[in-house]
Structure formats: C-alpha cells, structure tokens
C-alpha cells in the first residue's frame, strides 16, 4: 500500500510552474496521473515527477505551440 500523501492541483501547479487550470487540462487529456477521491482530484508528487521526467509536460507544451489561441 502506498502511504504517500496526495496533494491538490494547486500544489502540483506550484511544483510545475504553471497555473491550476493547466494542471486540470493535462489531467483531462489523461496524460497527467491523478486520482479522484470523492469529488476531488488529488495527485501524488512522485507520479507527477515521473510523468514530467518522462516528457509528459513536454508533450502538452508542444501541443500548445501547435495550436496557439
């Protein structure tokens, strides 16, 4: 059983240096690992760090530059 505490989207945003809405968009694309607990989405920092180290953040950034608003 994993005893690591889960954190909020706001805490993940601070860790990644993005706004909270970006965290939710990345989660919606099913690329950012998250766990739904009741009505809330929670994140494990070890999973987020692994995702970022394996290029998860870079994939989303390249999509953003391909489709500018």
Compressed to H and E, one letter per element, the order equals HHEEHH
Shape descriptor reads globular
- Major sheet summary line: 2 strands, antiparallel
- Low-confidence runs of at least 5 consecutive residues: 65-69
**How would you write the strand order of the largest sheet?**
1-2
**Helix amount:** 40-55%
Per DSSP E runs of 2 or more residues, the count of β-strands stands at 2
Quickly count the domains. 1
The termini sit apart by 43 Å
| Total of DSSP H or I helical runs spanning 4+ residues | 4
The radius of gyration over CA amounts to: 12 Å
- Output mean pLDDT: 84
Work out the strand percent.
5-15%
Kindly name the structural category.
mainly alpha
Features:
54% helix; disordered C terminus; 2 strands; two-stranded antiparallel ribbon; 69 residues; mainly alpha
């Amino acid at each position: 059983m994993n005893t690591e505490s889960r954190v909020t989207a706001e805490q993940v945003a601070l860790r990644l240096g993005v706004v909270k809405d970006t965290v939710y968009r990345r989660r919606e694309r099913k690329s950012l690992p998250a766990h739904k607990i009741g009505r809330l989405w929670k994140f494990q920092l070890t999973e987020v760090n692994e995702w970022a180290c394996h290029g998860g953040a870079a994939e989303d950034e390249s999509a953003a530059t391909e489709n500018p608003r």
